Amino acid sequence: MRRIMILNSKGGCGKSTISTNLAGYFATQGIETRLLDFDPQQSSIEWLQMRPEGRPKIRGLSANIDQIMVPNHKGVMIIDTPAGMRGKELKSYVRQAHTIIIPVLPSPIDMRATARFIESVLLLGRVDKKKVRLAVVANRVRKQTRIYQGLRRFLDSLGIPFIAVLRESQNYIRAVDQGLSIFEGAPSKVEEDLAQWKPIIKWLKSSDSRPARKKKRAEETN
Length: 222
Hints:
alpha/beta, Rossmann fold, seven-stranded parallel sheet, 7 helices
């Protein structure tokens, strides 16, 4: 079962929003989906509890990261992580991931914090050895602003894939209030948001997002 982790030590950057929407996407594709929530706020689990009957099934779990039991079959596991991780705790999380998405907000404080965090992740060695693949998503962005231009320059300087920009949209708030993902909204209302998710989905389907030793394994889901 493929493990996709949404990771950043900085709180409030949208980890739960990306986690729940990714879980919603895979579930709507008919893929067995599990959503693990290790954030003390339990936002992803609360979202799952509000999910209406009849929607594609997502299995939720809240537990210690070292207690993850990974089924040896097809499917995807989305892992929502807590803020403030460093040292041994961070290492224990990264060790569990195949793919890591790091959300970052367009503010100088968030950019500096994310730069330090990415440096600490790279020092763990698993990224250099291609045992885990890393990418960055800019979250809650207004493109026609000066800070966005600074964010682009910052992300381009990191040396890891910068795969998408997600706008600040009321559609995410409406979806989370109903236990739904952006992929389950009325197409005419979420068209712009879905277009912004396409590069994320494309990257996740590509070999660039998979550990080198996993590329040829049939059980890894698209």
